[in-house]
């Protein structure tokens, strides 16, 4: 049976509606998934008028099981929360930010109630959320709050290479200070658990080095000597299949070749550059540590091209494909 995958439509003024249409129309996606769009029917009808947009029948449903999952049909749980007289495609607005949040919340409800196997999210706009009175800075925080998960864990996957992040949205100076033995041990344990929830139980995790050539035993920095090596030695003694530090100039290449099942990147850009240079559009975020499975595109709402019919759906298609890949073996957890 093809799994039900919920797709919140995203910011109505951005490229979300357009890439949702293109994703649902994709032949591969039709073969592997039953897509349940959560959005606004009128906005989707508008998106059909953009140049080159698929001319799908918009079928309104209340529950996933009511849908018609066949070529040429898009099934939508219609929240009808956009005033089309006020909608300006390509412009930030509180109405759209609030609507985008409501699409996410309804998608999470469907997943929490086991009515869909996973949620694959489209981009949202932080400014629109703020203008709409939504007090979350992004998807991860929304999913954490609405699933009762205190600290969701982000993993990137591209071409089979999986990357976790020890630190993310802090300055590079702060990131260096956060490379501690205890933090590394905590993250390796959590990342291992996250992989097991996705059904990945074989293989070795690699920890990237922080300094050039992993510090050359203290010549270029002491973080590896004082924190990374001791953390890995203690984890290995506990039975964890982890190695490192391995220089960041080679560890991602080795992971791509299949040497490692995942890499723990020590700071935000270290892992982002590696994955997005490999394939920007197919770098997909998987939010782990929650009772539900969530995948996501890793690009923005692209207000500058919204409504022009030129937005690529490659990343959205890949997000749905990855949700389908992990749905059969996913075991939720916090």
What's the level 1 CATH class of the largest domain? Alpha Beta
What does the average pLDDT come to? 92
How many whole angstroms does the radius of gyration measure?
Answer: 21 Å
Instruction: Point out poorly predicted stretches.
Output: none
How does CATH name the architecture of the largest domain? Answer: 3-Layer(aba) Sandwich
Number of strands: 12
CATH superfamily label of the largest domain = Isopropylmalate Dehydrogenase
Q: What coarse outline follows from CA principal-axis ratios?
A: elongated
Query: Multimeric state of these chains?
Result: single chain
N-to-C span: 27 Å
What is the topology, as strand order, of the major beta sheet? Answer: 3-4-2-1-5-12-11-6-7-10-8-9
* Sequence of secondary-structure elements: EHHEHEEHEHHEEHHEHEHEHEEH
What proportion of the residues is helical, as a percent range?
A: 25-40%
CATH T-level topology of the largest domain: Isopropylmalate Dehydrogenase
- Tell me the strand percentage band: 15-25%
Our count of domains comes out at 2
Main beta-sheet strand count, sense and barrel state: 12 strands, mixed
- Total number of helical segments? 12
Structural class from helices and strands?
Answer: alpha/beta
């Amino acid at each position: 049976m093809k799994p039900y995958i919920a797709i919140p439509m995203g910011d109505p003024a951005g490229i979300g509606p357009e890439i949702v249409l293109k994703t649902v129309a994709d032949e591969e996606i039709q073969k592997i998934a039953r897509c349940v769009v959560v959005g606004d029917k009128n906005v989707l009808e508008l998106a059909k008028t953009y140049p080159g947009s698929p001319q799908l029948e918009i079928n309104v449903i209340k529950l996933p099981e009511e849908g018609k999952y066949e070529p040429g049909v898009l099934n939508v749980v219609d929240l009808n929360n956009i005033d089309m007289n006020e909608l300006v495609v390509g412009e930030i607005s509180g109405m759209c930010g609030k609507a985008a949040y409501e699409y996410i919340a309804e998608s999470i409800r469907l997943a929490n109630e086991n009515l869909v196997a996973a949620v694959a999210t489209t981009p949202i706009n932080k400014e629109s959320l703020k203008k709409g009175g939504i007090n979350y800075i992004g998807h991860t925080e929304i999913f954490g709050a609405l699933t009762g998960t205190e600290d969701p864990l982000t993993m990137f996957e591209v071409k089979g290479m999986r990357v976790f992040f020890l630190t993310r949205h802090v300055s590079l100076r702060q990131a260096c200070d956060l490379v501690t033995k205890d933090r590394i041990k905590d993250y390796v344990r959590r990342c291992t658990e996250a992989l097991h929830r996705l059904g990945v139980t074989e293989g070795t995790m690699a920890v990237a080095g922080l300094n050039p050539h992993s510090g050359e035993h203290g010549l270029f920095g002491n973080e590896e000597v004082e924190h990374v090596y001791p953390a890995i030695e203690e984890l290995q003694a506990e039975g964890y299949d982890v190695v490192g530090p391995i220089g960041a100039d080679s560890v991602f290449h080795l992971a791509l070749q299949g040497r490692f099942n995942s890499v723990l990147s020590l700071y935000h850009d270290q892992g982002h550059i590696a994955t997005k240079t490999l394939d920007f559009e197919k770098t997909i975020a998987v939010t782990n540590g929650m009772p539900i499975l969530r995948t996501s595109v890793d690009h923005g709402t692209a207000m500058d091209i919204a409504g022009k019919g030129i937005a690529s759906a490659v990343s959205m298609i890949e997000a749905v494909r990855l949700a389908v890949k992990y749905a059969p073996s996913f075991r939720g957890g916090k």
